[in-house]
Amino acid sequence: MPELILEKPLAELLPVPSGALVEKQLKTEEMVLNMGPQHPSTHGVLRVELLTDGEVVSKATPYLGYLHRCFEKHAEALDYPMIIPYTDRMDYIASMNNDLAFCLAVEKLMKLEVPRRTEFMRVIVVELNRIASHLVAIGTYGLDIGAFTPLLFTFRDREHILSLLEWLCGARMLYNYIWVGGTSHDFPPKFKERVGEFVRYFKPKADEIYRLLTNNEIFIQRTRGIGVLPADVAINYGCSGPMLRGSGVKWDLRRDDPYSVYPELEFDVVVPTADECVIGDCLARHIVRAKEIYESLKIIEQCLDKMPEVENFDPQAAVPKRVKPPKGDVYGRAENPRGELGFYIISEGNTKPFRVKARSSCFVNLSTLPELAKGQLISDVVAIIGSIDIVLGEIDR
Amino acid sequence: MQTKNPDIKKTKFTLLEKIYLPEILKGLWYTFKQMFAPNFTFRYPDVRWNPIAAFRGRPVLVERDDKAGERCVACGLCARVCPPMAISMQAVETELEQERHPLTFEINMLRCIYCGYCEEVCPEEAIVMSKEYDITYFSRESAIMDKQKLLVPAESVKDRLDFLRKFKNDIRKESDQVANVQP
Fold first, then answer.
1. Three-class SS of residue A162?
2. Does residue A42 have a pLDDT over 50?
């Protein structure tokens, strides 16, 4: 039974003197309430079984599997390059990041060197995609809480990123751009200038989007102090990404286990401060996402400056004709917008992997939901699920 | 556990903001300005979106320049590389100079994931990604596209062929030559 906050004991507040009788009369039955799989605030097909006592949730259990597509089993039947379109479909809001994580793992297994220009190209597209993903997260979170306007603002700016990426590789969401050992296309002419233009255009807009929600009192009332996840609990559950950083832990794979060209780049790991939110609550996670957009912009600017220009550059020059890693196993990981995405690959020396295991960030982050939702109101569960920023494609794989 | 929300820092307002009217006018002025701002959207079914050459739409077979059939030589590479195994073909010999061509060529569009690998491996530029993007069917059978449905003249996918030559195949051939020079 959740604890109610009352100024006096319940018996004293009520006119009937007999405490025991009141307890008996007021005892309510717990009700099982199914939230989902068609609930709009679950961001997909997630079912949460809520055990409610009145409006207070005493137990929340997430049920998964409505979007299961057998990625891991599928991968065993496919050649390594053919798995990449399927990794796109895991976290479909940030496909580039998934591709990068998978390609990093395979490249680590094959001990493949990637051209320096390709590394910068990859980082630029990954960070662009990270901004697009955070924009969706912020927009839909506002929508969950009841603010419709931010969604229109964020989707307007996300459209620019999608157009850029479409120009680059021909698809708007499922890119299939980053390949093992390279990328599918080189940057088109004038692409760098257009990205620079976008960064200059987007900086004031990012401020606007940040202020729109974070300074809104209704939004703060709905999120501040709700779903507090202490740092030790977050670490014990294995959380990563904005979820962990929202709890005040400075952990970012781009800095702590650097890959690609991230060691050369300057950026901050965003953690919330105590004066703007309660550390670890929904607002903290939202603020981390909103501020990470600035860091991504910083990274893109540095990459545009540092990226070497190569005449007649062939991005597929380092792509092996046959991707055939030696016998062995590898765990490759990268920082996704939602946390650590890792691929554990066992190779038997064939063109097909023996086993691919995906460690998806959303799945791990969602496992904290029973902890966070316990004792909260039903409407706050919506706010909590929104702040975890789940993508069901990645949870069920 | 139900916890009390911590106190919220109230924003300090100036006198002008406290009067409230100027703020309302500010908001109205912002809304009014948006009426003359450029549109971010268009009315989709009436106004059609024209994709760029890089766009990966429905895969099509390209007709030979002399209209005698398709460019495809039925090598089977696209069927081999297709991740969802959407492509199937049967090869026969032909009188044309290419000597082989597909007797049947089918793409199951329910399976196709528009990854573009078929176009990537094709040695003859015979299968390319067109610009078609709104593909709907009334039945599952009609989604399996045969050779007649897939075949298009080369002019209709000229954009894409130019794009491939400029940004993909030419560069690749150059680097292949370089690789041949240094044994």
1. helix
2. yes
Tell me the two tokens of residue A283: 């607002």
pLDDT at B28 over 90: yes
User: CA-to-CA distance for A163 and A176, rounded, in angstroms?
Assistant: 15
Q: How many residues does chain A have?
A: 397
Domain B59-172 has CATH 3.30.70.3270: yes
Distance of CA A67 to CAs A43, A270, A343, B49, B88, Å?
12, 32, 20, 30, 28
d(CA B68, CA A242): 59
User: Measured between alpha carbons, how far is residue A340 from residues A249, B52, B109 in Å?
Assistant: 14, 34, 34
Six token digits for residue A344: 């554990």
Cα A341 to Cα A67: distance, rounded to the nearest angstrom: 18
Q: Does the model's ipTM exceed the 0.90 cut?
A: no
A98: enclosing H helix or E strand: helix A95-110
Alpha-carbon distances, residue A246 vs A110, A257, A284, A334, B20 (angstroms): 36, 19, 5, 19, 35
Percent of chain A whose pLDDT exceeds 70: 92
- Go through chain B and tell me how many residues it has: 183
Identify all chain A residues contacting B114, using CB atoms and an 8 Å cutoff.
171, 174
What is this structure's pTM?
Answer: 0.85
Amino acid identity of residue A167, one-letter, is W
A14 touches chain B (CB under 8 A): no
A367: CATH: 1.10.645.10
Q: A229-271: per-residue pLDDT in tens?
A: 888 898 999 999 898 998 888 888 888 888 888 888 888 888 8
Nearest to B83 among A82, A217, A221 (CB): A82
Chain B neighbors of A171, CB-CB under 8 A: 55-56, 114
Is B167 an interface residue toward A (CB < 8 Å)? Answer: yes
Question: Which residues of B fall within a CB distance of 8 Å from A167?
Answer: 52, 54
For chain B, what are the domain ranges? 59-172
Nearest CA to A64 among A377, A331, A365? A365
pLDDT of residue A351: 87
Rounded Cα distance, A241 and A134, in Å: 12
Provide φ and ψ at B102, rounded to 5°: -80, 130
Tell me how far the alpha carbon of residue A3 is from its chain's centroid: 33
Is residue A364 a part of any domain in this protein?
yes
Backbone CA torsion sign across B9, B13, B17, B19: positive
Predicted pLDDT at B98: 78
Q: CA A385, CA A362: separation in Å to the nearest integer? A: 11
For B139-145, what is the mean pLDDT?
A: 88
Around Cβ A69, how many Cβ atoms within 10 Å?
A: 13
- Domain residues for the domain of A152 are 68-372
- Over residues A330-350, mean pLDDT: 90
Instruction: Provide the terminal-to-terminal Cα distance of chain B, rounded to the nearest Å.
Output: 72
pLDDT band for B180, please (50, 70, 90 cuts).
very low
Report how many domains make up chain A: 1
In chain A the first and final C-alpha atoms are separated, in Å, by 35
Dihedral over alpha carbons A298, A301, A306, A308 (to 10 degrees): 140
